[in-house]
């Protein structure tokens, strides 16, 4: 009986403590997140979460949003839409945040109608989907970088400006997986290529974890494109394709978009990674000449001293954190209360925002995506800039 | 101790609500279900809706596996067929929710009969593999038949409409889910008291003796597949209207295994077990997650170990339950009930 009383007492004390905790934190800007920390997407999710958490913690060190602290609350979803939606609803009810970060394209699509009509929170996510960046349909949702279509646009712009043989139309092949992620930018990319005078000579499609890519390689050999852009993969089957193409004696330059521009892939490619190119919306961890990267490295040295490297998924989280804080600061500067609808109105007003070399000069112009990126090339196991920031809008 | 509870006829023994006590408790349960939405927030209501979907699907699977003894690894595919059917019927033909609901069940039942056809020749593990094939084939169709299923992007579905009332919040949706769950559960409960239900059980217990008794094995196995898929289809329809989107990612193989786990944890062959199993498999991961939330902000490194641990703990809980009570949660429940019913004369 006594032990029961003690337990109950402890529980009560705990409840009071927790209650006091939330009471103290009343004067903050709340940002919630449903992160895929476990499950299929965990390889990126845990870094994205850390990046976002660190970015907001750094912002707080800098004085928050004009003195108001930002509070970051996250939950794991296991990359399961049902759980993600549940976590979203739970967090909306419990914390009434003004901004939220979601785990997938699917979550954004499923929640978009309710975000517009009920929840009114600005919503960022792991997604680079074109559909979500549509401002007319999803005014509250933004993409933390260029959409996949815009990433293709940036690469095609680069290709058009750098033909392999002078005076001849450059040729390109699209090599993509049979998933939403793989197919998302292709229709736009075809149009863009036509506009820029780049000829699309082949489109290869594989399953996502494809092992045998012989038929696609033979087709690639037949068309011998100057450039070949991958979309919708993380690592396999890219090394096999690049090696195979080398064996066939192809001189094709292979390129990737966000997820295929990781150092993880470059490490897997080894010597074949030399000359591998692609588009990245952010700077890499080792680009210490970039002021924001210096800040990130310094922050990590202070808070995570044993961290030697942060992948580009971490940068995605960090940049999203920057956008959240920027929107809140804009609201404040205009003398508006920091609420979801006001924050949403700020998105189209972000113009030529200096990200200290991290993501170029960012504007959300025609869509809720940044439409800017840089082309990098693999050299000595690292990505080095091959172009300046390329703007689409 | 309850006394004076004697049955004087077979009908009384077979009754669904066997005593006044049961009726009182049931009335209390319904009252609680009716009051719940007015007390709970959107999160709990959403979880309740999600659990409702899981219950309908699990009850369906339990009819097939628990009652008729036909193993299926393709249950998620049937839920998927139901979901796609209602998504397509709503977006293309503009059919209302109440029409889509039975049609989703029927279309899933139709495919269930086709998939069940090999059960004439196959049993046990072999049938398991045959239904696995169904899972893979339907998964492939969901992804690749783009003009109809919308391919990998799936189909966005508007909130359902009942007689002009838009069910756009989980609060309103709750009042659709609960009656459907009650209907599904009572249908399943009554099924076991009919000729067909008893035939299922006879087939499960010994197919040869069942055949000797004059049960047409093939016909009744197909009935089992059709019934089970009908439930799955209805669950799929509910799910698609709840999530407002359907993509092939919602019906992978591990979803089929999750349904299987529900009925095994809950109790094979028991309707109550399906309900317990569905609640367990839906709510426990959420409870673990909420438990973890208490530790948030303590230490990043600690969290990076704790997150994957959720899955491990969940797995251990399932194994633990099965080791200590192979007949599932329904059996544990029965023992608890018996304890109170017989108290103070346990033995």
From TrEMBL, chain B:
InterPro entries documented for this protein: ABC_transp_permease, LivM-like
CDD domains noted in UniProt: TM_PBP1_LivM_like
GO cellular component: plasma membrane
Keyword Plastid: no
Chief localisation class: membrane
Topology of the protein relative to the lipid bilayer: Multi-pass membrane protein
Molecular function terms, GO-annotated: branched-chain amino acid transmembrane transporter activity
Compartment list: Cell membrane
Keyword Cell membrane on entry: yes
Transmembrane segments: 24-46, 53-73, 93-117, 124-145, 173-192, 222-242, 262-284, 305-324
UniProtKB keywords: Cell membrane, Membrane, Transmembrane, Transmembrane helix
Domain of life: Bacteria
PANTHER family: ABC TRANSPORTER PERMEASE PROTEIN, HIGH-AFFINITY BRANCHED-CHAIN AMINO ACID TRANSPORT SYSTEM PERMEASE
Protein name: Branched-chain amino acid ABC transporter permease
């Amino acid at each position: 009986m006594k032990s029961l009383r003690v337990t109950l007492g402890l529980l009560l004390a705990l409840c009071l403590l927790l209650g006091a905790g939330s009471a103290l934190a009343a004067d903050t800007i709340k940002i919630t997140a449903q992160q895929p920390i476990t499950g299929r997407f965990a390889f990126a999710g845990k870094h994205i979460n850390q990046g976002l958490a660190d970015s907001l913690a750094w912002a707080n060190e800098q004085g928050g949003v004009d003195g108001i602290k930002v509070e970051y609350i996250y939950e794991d979803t296991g990359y399961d839409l049902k759980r993600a939606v549940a976590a979203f609803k739970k967090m909306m009810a419990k914390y009434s945040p003004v901004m939220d970060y979601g785990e997938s394209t699917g979550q954004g699509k499923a929640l978009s109608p309710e975000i517009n009509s009920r929840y009114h929170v600005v919503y960022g996510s792991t997604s680079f989907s074109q559909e979500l960046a549509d401002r007319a349909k999803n005014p509250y949702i933004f993409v933390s970088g260029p959409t996949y279509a815009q990433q293709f646009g940036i690469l095609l712009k680069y290709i058009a400006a750098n033909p392999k043989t002078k005076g001849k139309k450059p040729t390109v092949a699209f090599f993509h997986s049979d998933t939403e992620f793989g197919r998302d930018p292709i229709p736009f990319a075809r149009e863009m290529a036509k506009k820029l005078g780049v000829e699309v000579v082949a489109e290869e499609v594989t399953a996502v974890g494809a092992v045998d890519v012989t038929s696609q390689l033979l087709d690639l050999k037949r068309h011998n494109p100057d450039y070949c852009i991958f979309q919708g993969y993380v690592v396999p089957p890219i090394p096999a394709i690049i090696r195979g193409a080398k064996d066939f004696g192809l001189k094709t330059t292979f390129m990737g978009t966000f997820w295929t521009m990781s150092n993880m892939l470059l490490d897997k490619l080894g010597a074949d990674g030399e000359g591998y190119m692609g588009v990245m919306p952010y700077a890499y961890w080792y680009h210490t000449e970039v002021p924001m990267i210096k800040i990130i490295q310094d922050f990590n040295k202070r808070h995570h001293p044993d961290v030697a490297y942060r992948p580009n998924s971490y940068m995605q989280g960090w940049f999203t954190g920057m956008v959240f804080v920027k929107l809140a600061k804009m609201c404040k500067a205009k003398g508006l209360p920091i609420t979801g609808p006001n924050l949403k109105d700020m998105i189209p007003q972000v113009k030529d925002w200096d990200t200290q070399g991290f993501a170029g000069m960012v504007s959300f112009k025609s869509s809720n995506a940044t439409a800017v990126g840089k082309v990098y090339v693999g050299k000595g196991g690292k990505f080095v800039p091959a172009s300046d920031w390329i703007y689409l809008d | 101790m309850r006394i004076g509870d004697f049955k004087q006829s077979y009908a009384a023994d077979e009754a669904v609500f066997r005593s006044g006590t049961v009726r009182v408790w049931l009335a209390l349960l319904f009252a609680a279900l009716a009051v719940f939405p007015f007390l709970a927030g959107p999160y709990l209501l959403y979880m309740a809706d999600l659990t409702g979907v899981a219950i309908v699907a699990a009850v369906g699977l339990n009819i097939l596996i628990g009652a008729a003894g036909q193993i299926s690894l393709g249950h998620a595919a049937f839920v998927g067929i139901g979901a796609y059917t209602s998504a397509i019927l709503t977006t293309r033909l503009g059919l209302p929710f109440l029409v889509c609901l039975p049609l989703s069940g029927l279309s899933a039942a139709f495919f269930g009969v086709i998939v069940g056809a090999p059960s004439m020749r196959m049993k046990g593990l072999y049938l398991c593999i045959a239904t696995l094939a169904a899972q893979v084939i339907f998964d492939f169709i969901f992804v690749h038949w783009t003009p109809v299923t919308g391919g990998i992007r799936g189909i966005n579905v508007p909130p359902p409409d009942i007689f002009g009332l838009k069910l756009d919040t989980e609060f309103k949706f709750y009042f659709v889910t609960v009656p459907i769950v009650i209907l599904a559960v009572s249908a399943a409960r009554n099924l076991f008291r009919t000729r067909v239900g008893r035939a299922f059980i006879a087939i499960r217990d010994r197919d040869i003796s069942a055949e000797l008794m004059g049960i047409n094995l093939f016909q009744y196995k197909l009935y089992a597949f059709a019934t089970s898929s009908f439930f799955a289809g209805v669950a799929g329809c509910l799910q698609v209207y709840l999530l407002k989107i359907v993509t092939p990612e919602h019906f992978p193989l591990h979803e089929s295994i999750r349904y299987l786990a529900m009925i095994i944890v809950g109790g094979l062959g028991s309707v109550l077990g399906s309900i317990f199993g569905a609640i367990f498999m839906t709510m426990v991961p959420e409870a673990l997650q909420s438990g973890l939330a208490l530790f948030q902000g303590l230490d990043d490194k600690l969290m990076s170990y704790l997150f994957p641990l959720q899955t491990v703990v969940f797995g251990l809980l399932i194994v633990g339950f099965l080791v200590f009570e192979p007949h599932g949660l329904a059996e544990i429940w029965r023992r608890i009930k018996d304890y109170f019913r017989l108290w103070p004369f346990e033995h």
